[in-house]
Q: What sequence folds into this?
């Protein structure tokens, strides 16, 4: 098991390195000129070339990437071109809002995903199973940006139940109720697609387990269906559930971009969007790297936990 975990960690490092280079190259090959964007269209060619040289944009791509990678290993993500502050400061200010949003979305995903899967898979081919399956198919096909706009209009503008923008009312001494009220609509918007995926995959695992001989034996011993679903089959479903739920950590963190833009939530996704519009390469690279780190760490933790829960994977 130790060897398997070490291999997973090594693969994680390679993935992060590959993602860093792909993002770095994609940004530098994208249309436009960072120096001219900073100076404006009225700047002379001499000033543009001087700024390109100052920023190191005139050097070969691999040399730029190597210098950035060496600085990254020292904890230096560079300075924001548009904000003129260290990128690490920008990310550290924004990441907590994104982690809060991701945590709330993940809690909704795993709790309701497991609940719907147990109700549906434990009562296979019943009316309840068909209704839940239809609901999950609908939620899985619903674009997050469309859902976010609908929730904002209905519950924010018309019914005025929840705030429609940002976290401006969330002071340091804000109560849990105030925080939850601001967080609810963005969290639901972010969680819906992942909830449907988790429920559908875990439902299949429940259906497979409900046909096993030990379930028939449990029924013969007089165990109730509720006990069979929540106790007998649950322990065997958990590895599959943990794996698919762990894959949603990075997805939720990255897909929160839509929720952050729609609800003006001050997180990494909104900062990434603004950095792209401003062609702020260091900020975009730092934000994408932060998303990639959360993504691969989530997958790594899910793999390790699945190995611990399922002895068959230990090899």
A:
């Amino acid at each position: 098991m130790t060897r398997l975990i070490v291999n997973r960690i090594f693969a994680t490092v390679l993935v992060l390195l590959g993602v860093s280079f792909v993002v770095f190259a994609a940004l530098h090959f994208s249309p436009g000129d960072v120096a001219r964007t900073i100076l404006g269209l009225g700047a002379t060619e001499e000033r543009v070339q001087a700024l390109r040289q100052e920023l190191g944009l005139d050097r070969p791509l691999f040399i730029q990437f190597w210098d950035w990678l060496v600085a990254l290993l020292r904890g230096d993500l560079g300075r924001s071109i548009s904000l003129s502050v260290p990128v690490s400061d920008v990310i550290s200010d924004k990441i907590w809002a994104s982690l809060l949003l991701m945590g709330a979305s993940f809690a909704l995903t795993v709790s309701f995903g497991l609940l719907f899967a147990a109700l549906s898979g434990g009562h296979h081919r019943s009316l309840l199973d068909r209704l839940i399956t239809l609901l999950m198919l609908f939620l899985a096909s619903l674009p997050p940006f469309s859902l976010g706009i609908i929730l904002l209009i209905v519950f924010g503008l018309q019914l005025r139940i929840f705030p429609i923008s940002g976290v401006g009312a969330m002071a340091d001494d804000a109560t849990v109720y105030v925080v939850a009220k601001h967080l609810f609509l963005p969290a639901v918007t972010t969680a819906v697609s992942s909830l449907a995926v988790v429920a559908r995959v875990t439902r299949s695992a429940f259906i497979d387990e409900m046909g096993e001989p030990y379930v028939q034996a449990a029924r013969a011993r007089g165990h109730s269906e509720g006990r069979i679903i929540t106790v007998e089959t649950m322990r065997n479903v958990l590895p599959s559930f943990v794996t698919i739920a762990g894959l949603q950590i990075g997805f939720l963190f990255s897909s929160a971009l839509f929720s952050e833009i729609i609800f003006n939530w001050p997180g990494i996704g909104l900062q990434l969007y603004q950095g792209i519009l401003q062609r702020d390469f260091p900020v975009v690279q730092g934000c994408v790297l932060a998303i990639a780190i959360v993504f691969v760490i989530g997958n790594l933790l899910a793999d390790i936990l699945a190995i611990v829960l399922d002895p068959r994977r230990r090899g």
User: Anything to note?
Assistant: The radius of gyration is 24 Å. The chain has 13 helices and no strands. The domain at 91-310 is CATH 1.10.3720.10 (MetI-like fold). The CA atoms of residues 186 and 259 lie 5 Å apart.
